[in-house]
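Could you join me in thinking about how sequence relates to backbone shape in a protein? We need material for that, and I hope you will provide a protein of your own picking. Label the sequence line and the structure token line clearly, so we can match residues to local backbone shapes. Would you write everything just below, so we can both look at the same thing?
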Amino acid sequence: MKNIPISALIGLGFTALYFFIAIFAPLLAPYGMAEVVGDVWEPSSSQFWLGTDNIGRDLLSRMIYGGRTTIFIATAATILSFVTGSILGFLAAVLGGWADQVMSRTVDLIMSIPSLITALVVLAMVPVTIPVLIVVMGLLDATRVYRLARAVAVDIAVMDYVEAARLRGEGQTWVIFREILPNALSPLVAELGLRFIFMVLFVSTLSFLGLGVQPPLADWGGIVKENKDGIVYGIGAALYPAVAIATLAISVNLVADWVLNRTTSLKGGRG
């Protein structure tokens, strides 16, 4: 703990708090997620700490359940993105030749179209459910993980210990999971936090545009959309989820920056 900077400790603290709230949301929320308990846009009070939303639901409860939904989708999509992108990136680096070219050019083609536009087109044609959101977001973001994983694996694949493994007769699976993966974890872990935050912003944007999490389920982007009209009347209900998104993004970025700096310094020390 002594070697962890204050900024990283703050980031870890807030990130852990958000995940704790997400995990225990049903126990922490004072009311049900879609339960109407008051009038429209009531101000903060001892009964409703953050007031009520556009139809009289407790905003604190909506925020807690919304955080659970947002964090769950972002976490699942990030895992899918990293598993898919890393395996394909390592495979492309190990195989090389035409296989590498086909996969890399396909990824370049997909990345040439903005992810948000692609997601909107796909989600407009299929029923929008949480599993569909996770798959669409995860596969679109896997292209970025693929490029990072391939770039790292190309450098590792020419190392002496990888050549020695090949000379021993080890197969491609061994080379990928026993030689390349352990030595590629540091940059991938540093990138993990950034991709997670991208997923949080991505799902929030989709929900704000109406093609993300569907009512009555709550998520932070959807809460902003539901209460945005209140800003005109000086009602700040839409600002709470915006602050939550920004706080989570800053917290995870602080941790990711510390991991990246630590990885860089360790490499420099070994060099």
In short: The chain has one domain: 6-270. The domain at 6-270 is CATH 1.10.3720.10 (MetI-like fold). The CA atoms of residues 185 and 261 lie 14 Å apart.
